[in-house]
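Quick question about two entries, pasted in order.
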Amino acid sequence: MVLSYYLLKLPYTVIWEVRELFNLNKDVMLYCANALDYQIFASVQKHLPPLKIIAKDKKAQQELAAIGVSSKVYPVFPKGVIMCRQAGYKFPASRMKKVGMRHGAYTFKPFANSKGYNLLDHFYMTSSREVERAQAVGITCAKAVGFPKLDPMFDGSVDTEQLAALAKGAGLDDSKATLLFTATWNDSGVSAISHWYDKLDSLTADYNILVTVHPWTKDEIKQKIKNTKQVFFIDTADIVPYIQLADVCIGDTSSVLAECCALEKDMVTFTVDDGKRTVQEVKQLIKEFSIQIDQFDQLAGAIKQALTKPQHLAQARTKANKIMFDQLDGKAGLRAANYLKELFPQLNQTNN
């Protein structure tokens, strides 16, 4: 458990309980650490009355305001709280109902402390296999719903006209295949971004290049990518439609690979040494559903292989998708919303 939980528990709980006594805790609210949390929740929100938003801090409030979302800055004292992460310690009143859900598909790194998860009444995971893994380490609040972030790609919300507009905005050349590069945090110990971030210019003559990286990636790395001519840096929370534009996705151990797999994209991955964030089951899945290479000079051949034999690893992707998502039917948000309505009956009403 993080130290702030113990520091917050008494003062936060006293204030919350006094407010509860006078019926001042009225709203079920969504806690957002950034704009990505809001975007991830969108496919759940569509099945619920509008939720008021709690921003983690002023920076998060500004991010949300930039996309037209008003919010109150934490600390706030809601009747109940929903979050796209595991941050129950910020709301330590034990009688407050709390729900968390994944902001990245499946668990590509080891589970955090089970005590932190178990502060929550529910934590929505992306598959029954993930729930089994969670239960094995003592997490008791897990429920499988799927990954709502992917729903728009399977329920018809994103159409060909929208994708064409994105492609035009990214400056994609119809005569070239499109590569999407992704990487986990550069200091995670399991990132391969150092292999390619300063070499993208060698590929732009032959391919369209899209890039998305972990938000914590060093600024100098991001700036190098942004400064590379004919490379489009995806600087938005909603990367899924850009994945759909790609012919081949290139990565390491980032959970974005799960999203690429769900969208049936051929993948090339750089091998990385095991670190404290390595999950052996996930490492094996990546090995099975992608063409693996060790160095940048092997990339050109791997890309050609992926483009000429696009169905070569289709069976492995299907297997991985069953493990990571159970089903990809565009209804994960609905399943999450139904669980929320069970826990928070007021969400069955027309107004929250």
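Here is the second entry:
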Amino acid sequence: MSDEIRHECGIAFLRLRKPFTYFHQKYNTALYGLDKLYLLMEKQHNRGQDGAGIASVKLDMQIGVPFMKRIRSNVGQDIAGIFKHLQKEIEDIEKLHPTIRNYPDLLKGYIDFLGEVMIGHLRYGTQGKNDIEYCHPFIISDINPALNICLAGNFNLTNTKELIQFLGEDQVNNPTMDSDLFAMIRTIHLFLKEEVSKENSSINWKKILSESAAKFDGGFVVEGICGNGDGFVFRDAHGIRPAYYYINEEVVCVTSERAVLMTTFKTPFEEINELPPGHAIIVHKDGSYHIEQILPEAKRAACSFERIYFSRGSDQEIYNERKQLGRFLSEKVLESIQYDLKNTLFSFIPNTSEIAFYGLVKGAEAYLNEIKIKRIQSWNKDFDDEKLREMIERRVRVEKIAIKDVKMRTFITEDSARNEMVQHVYDITYGTVRAGIDSIVIIDDSIVRGTTLRESIIKMLDRLGPKKIIIVSSAPQIRYPDCYGIDMSRMNEFIAFNATVELLKDHKQLHILNEVYQECIEAKKANTLSSKNYVKKVYKQFTVEDINTKIAQMLHPEDVNAEIEIIYQTIENLHKACPHNTGDWYFSGDYPTPGGNVVVNNAFINYMDGTKNRAY
């Protein structure tokens, strides 16, 4: 994605179902669990770079010996930093006891994080501050082991303030109480205390999680461990955030992405399962597990951005879906270039759009192959080898036009000079374009703000001298804010919204903005903001093509000579390509939870008021 957006934390839940002696005998290491946790987190590094954290619980520890530990980092290279800390702890012990690795049970007593139940978390900050106190996991300690709980997740809640009011928490004593994880862990702990007070032989996690999750409005996948040795992962009813699990006789493991489980445990696609929406996987101290429904069934609305951009493309389903997204765009691109493949060059920016690029090229090749067949058939055998070879060897022209440079830093503060530096984020490949003859087709994952396109990519491509630059987005127009885990919360961040406002100005229809604003204000006073997305009315005046054309005008710098055209994916084709991830609220405005409507309406109020506050 050329416009970087912050998004999508990652989780790793790992429960060892065998004693450490088993792993030492089979794999020649008692650190099997920690090794796997490191790999699970590193293979999801794309999901969080603001911080990382892990926590573990040791089973059957003697009274007075610590059994739950947590470590967090937000200083950069956080996964490596955390595990270097653990490695140093092991090395320090080995200096005193050189053969301690051969005694797993003894090693467990010395190594803080050598537990049977572990969680790991990778953070992208979308709500709250990015200091260490906001990094997951959060922990609540208690003298009773069963009341110790540690929680981390991939989520945002839209009703954090309401939860805080329900809990009656004191902000003075809880500086992180504006965090949705704070509200969540306190809510779960409240119901946990009620359950533990009954003094049953085991904790009824289905009841606790059902009562807790019923109070959460948002998209979430949450992992937790309890001081008594139990652990769990639960998912929202709409399946907004992703979760996959792998279980065998040795482990129970849950992550945000399927491919990481396949890689870590060297297991085939068929052995990885999706955690159903509204369900929890609960693992007890004895290693037994069960999957329970904790929320009423709801319409599936799994995040489509996972398939477009967020998740790694090494997942075979995601790989095929991204190719299909590109292929669906090929017809519009062919129309735009008037089917002149001879004088058109195809490429992609950034690297994450490469898979969709393959699909786009495949679509163009399919058209070209049909042309070849018809031409050859029309010759009625009136051709020689050279003529036939020339026709068969025609190809869609593909080049690596742009290469992202190393991350550039500048201490220049003047805007004009800074904009000049921004243009050099990418390097171009000179000599690939025939100036004044060729058109360039560039595919991107999505276009959010358009800033990088206007200030860098388009200017850079224009230096090659193309006749026309066509920017193709494998995602539809982003029109509305997200509130379930992606950092897109302000209306003026979206080029599609800004273009629509410009169209309203052009057509002398700015009164529509005021009408929508008044509807939102009245609904807010009546406490009915959750009932409807009023902002949809802003877009109803214009077609997708109208907005595309205005976006192209807005992204066309004055000093660029090439014609600019923008082509977006349609929502219909998005659903055809990604049939299992139908959540599209940032494109359509159809939010799966009432809190989503509250967020979009508040975001519009903030826009009209000229404030930069987040809408949730």
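Reply: The mean pLDDT is 92. The two ends are 25 Å apart (CA to CA). Hope that helps.
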